[in-house]
Write a structure and sequence with these properties.
By secondary structure, the chain is mostly beta strands. It has a single domain, classed as Jelly Rolls. It is built from one helix and 13 strands; from the N terminus they run E-E-E-E-E-E-E-E-E-E-E-H-E-E. The longest helix is centred in the C-terminal third of the chain and has 5 residues. The C terminus is likely disordered.
Length: 143
Amino acid sequence: MIRCIHLFTGADGKSHVEDRAIPIDVVQAATAVHFEETAAGSALDWHTAPHVQYVITLSGTLEFTTRDGETFVLRPGDVLLAADTTGSGHRWRLIDDQLAAPIRRVGPTRNEKVRSVCQWRLGCQEQPAISRLTSGRQKSPIP
């Protein structure tokens, strides 16, 4: 399992955090993948996610805080499902001297009307469009 932090807007309109896991054999389609690097010591003040996205941290240690004071730390290998596209938002800062190098997976795909793997595992009614790896080969390719 891979650690997945789900950052979402609750019914109260505020950003909240849940610590979840993603099975290693899950494959999910993406509409875009964005690579970026953030300088050591950087921070981003209060904001919401621009769209639902996975952020996979490759290097650097980041501390996130919601307006209600919920905090969590992302380390290399952790996955963030940023889904708080409305509401009070969050902020982050680099807490070590490393460059932050996240990969952002933007989704769901244009035609996909399902929720992400992390959201589905949190109890949503719709199943995600995923394929599972079996016997070393993919059942359905990523579009």
